[in-house]
Design brief:
43% helix; four-stranded parallel sheet; alpha/beta; Rossmann fold; 340 residues; 13 helices
Amino acid sequence: MRSRLAILGAAATCLAVTVGAAGATAQPVGEEPQPAWLSAPVLPDLTGKVERRLRHDLAVGRDRGMRGRVFAKVGDSNTQLTGVLYGLGCRRAELGGTTGLSKVIRRYRQVGLPNPRPVQGCASGNSFSRRSAAVASGATSYWPLTTISELSTGAGSRFTECRLDESPLSCELRVTRPRYTLVMTGSNDISIDFFFNGITPATKLQVRLAPVIRAIRRFGSVPVLSTVAPATVGPLAVRYIRDTNREVWKLARRLRVPLVNLYRALDSPAMVNHGLGEDNMHLGIFGNDGPNRVEVPGPTTLRDSVNLTRPALRYGSNRRNLIVLKTLRGLDRVARMEFR
């Protein structure tokens, strides 16, 4: 019996091939006005209603014993990717003169976390380097809340820290008790909806993702949403990625969740291939000449991914690593004001 993640991965590959072929014959279309979500800032706007809700969530988390200096990760292969965050937990970052971020790195390295499935070459356990139970290649927006016993016949061997009656999300929150939970998901919903569900992609994203946000808050953690990365494999994928990000933005506004606009950061002429690697699906890594490594890093991947100098920031993994550090810095400033 094939696992759901294997089916999702096959569907994603199918979508890439199909829309790539469509791109060869598609006719040019006129440019649309820039949507409101694309104008949202790259770093979360932590003012107004979002700030008030953030302060409320921080206070709830304090009362429930959530741990400062700990964050959790929820997402798919672009978070599982070995160039994303892991190196910040076990390599020395080149910060390129950016001030204040070394303190953020030290802060989130301080609390040790269990890490029974470490990335090769990065055995330490902290918020950056931990292999999250709520991150998996091929995962959809509703996967984090699926009971582990329902995921596949061999799920127990992967989720060694988890009970079979837990979901990947509830397990990760229980094990880490994070102050913040970073969520970036939705890309894989496109292929499932396009090929199997018979509905227009992104139409159900808010319905699926809102329970994830609410579950994080119920536990006592602060959810932080992110738009997903661009797609360059064809016009259909481009359209549905943009639709997905529109719905992520709407959900963040509706539920007053801090939003990282990763798409805007990567969809820039300054970026190499819109921040993507040669497969046009996963974030590129500075100095990485071959295919992106989702599970096993190349010899220099961890080191290269934490190079945050100007040339390196033209690559998606490096840029996302910088954005996460700056986001944590901004969140912590609000937390310090709340808890002083």
